[in-house]
């Protein structure tokens, strides 16, 4: 069940990052597209409106000219009243009017045209019809030209083409100013919306971050289940995960109970057979081959059972990644038991521990077996003192157990770590203590190292992670 936990954490972490990026990228993309479309539409609307207003001003001048146009008795056109706009009288001012006959000959024109003329459109030939177009003015500037063909009742055989034009420089400048201000405004709006989107995404993903923190706390052994308030969309996942954890605990307990029952059921008859074989060997000066064979095979069978039980148990306890066990009480309990076992030897235990609150993510029974095997091994060889030093180094809990016994030669340190090997056959034991402790350490990404103690005897140092590796 540790694999689902690892998978969930990695999936959640990856989803948290990619989901945030996707949401932000998608939001920024759609906001940008919407603002670009909005800016384009607003620019078109403003340009259309400004152009209509510009053309409306030209129509006003055109209406004034039409209203003041008259024909003399000799058939010549004249204006009863000149337009009041001063720019018509200023040479090349950018505002012009012109009246020509049906032969496109100049009849009347504004002083602003000076000695230039406006190009009339041959397409306009129907009286009363107006035509607006862009043209080139007398000063080579861009102009808007409004033209209309007029017939007067005083001269029914003639038509006059009235033209009014104005340069578009101010119109173009107004449109450019509008675009510039619109870009600035839309840029500020885009930035504001992006900040709002970031805040919204961060707020929306808060439940996922809470779930991630709950998973980290579960993996670190701070809790046994996923705890916290989660939204309705996430709550079913949390409930299912907690059910998996509950089922895992139940299966671990059952597996441990079955392992204990199996050990008890197997070790009892093996002990009887071993005692019988030992008694048979002690009766005879020259033991039979059968007795020797039985004794040898029983020892092998015991070792195999111990090894398989150890593997089964370590596989089970390694799944319980949420366990946190304090070190100090475990050390104290083991020392009390060892003192009772060796009460006649008066061994002095020196415990050096700076932080009494240190915990490790290891099952209490497993931790007791690791440390218990090492302290028990030290008590067999110690003369008067066993020193236990507990400290943190490189984010790992280190426990060094040293005795003042006769020690072990440096070239023998590796050998006694092997299963069933004892430093001295005269000392009772199975030779499995160091091997079991080493295997249990490795289950939790730890390490057991033997060294020569400053006290003169053997030293054993175990290093265990303070937090369980999530990939374990």
Task: Describe it.
The protein has 472 residues and is an alpha+beta fold. The protein is 51% helix and 19% strand. The protein contains 9 helices and 14 strands. It has helices at residues 2-68, 169-204, 206-219, 235-283, 289-317, 327-341, 364-381, 413-416, 433-443, and strands at residues 69-71, 77-79, 95-101, 106-109, 130-136, 142-152, 155-167, 325-326, 348-353, 359-360, 385-393, 396-403, 447-452, 458-465. Strands 4-3-7-6-5 form a 5-stranded antiparallel β-sheet. The chain has a 5-stranded mixed β-sheet with strand order 9-11-12-14-13, covered by helices on one side. Strand 6 and strand 7 (155-167) form a beta hairpin. Helix 1 (2-68) packs antiparallel against helix 2 (169-204) and helix 1 (2-68) packs antiparallel against helix 3 (206-219). The protein is rod-shaped, with a radius of gyration of 50 Å. The N and C termini lie close together (11 Å).
Let me know the number of strands.
Answer: 14
Q: Ends: how far apart? A: 11 Å
Structural class by sheet pairing and helices:
alpha+beta
Which stretches are poorly predicted, pLDDT < 50 over at least 5 residues?
1-16, 419-431
H/I helix tally: 9
Strand content: 15-25%
Main beta-sheet annotation: 5 strands, antiparallel
Gyration radius over CA: 50 Å
Layout: helices, strands, pairs:
Elements: H1 2-68, E1 69-71, E2 77-79, E3 95-101, E4 106-109, E5 130-136, E6 142-152, E7 155-167, H2 169-204, H3 206-219, H4 235-283, H5 289-317, E8 325-326, H6 327-341, E9 348-353, E10 359-360, H7 364-381, E11 385-393, E12 396-403, H8 413-416, H9 433-443, E13 447-452, E14 458-465
Parallel strand pairs: 9-11
Antiparallel strand pairs: 1-2, 3-4, 3-7, 5-6, 6-7, 8-10, 11-12, 12-14, 13-14
Helix pairs in contact: 1-2, 1-3, 4-5, 6-7, 7-9
